[in-house]
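Give me the fold.
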Amino acid sequence: MNKKEKEKYKKLLIKEKIRILEAMGALQKDSLELSQAEGENHGVPTHLAELASDNFEKNLDLNLTSSEGKLLTEINNALAKLVSGRSNQGSFGICEKCQGKISQKRLRALPYARFCITCQRSRETTE
């Protein structure tokens, strides 16, 4: 992979990282606002449906934050592969399972992809 392509993927990864950090910040802000609103109402819902809705929102926020955190880790790992001077230099775009090249099409869609499409499909069917 040439320097120009690496720079393109670096920009894609940084753009995705910023998007995730902004989304996580928005989730934290929403969660804080919900907690503050509960404090004003002493945290006691007036109806069972409100309790269910509040619990659903909290669980959804937690799940989204967890998923975004995992994705952020994948992005950071991919960025580390692109940075010179790292022990894994040159491994960006190489499948971690078969050591083959990950297609450019796949990397454009998922610049943090760790596996080629064949190995990823294999992983998904065995999990």
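The CA atoms of residues 66 and 82 lie 25 Å apart.
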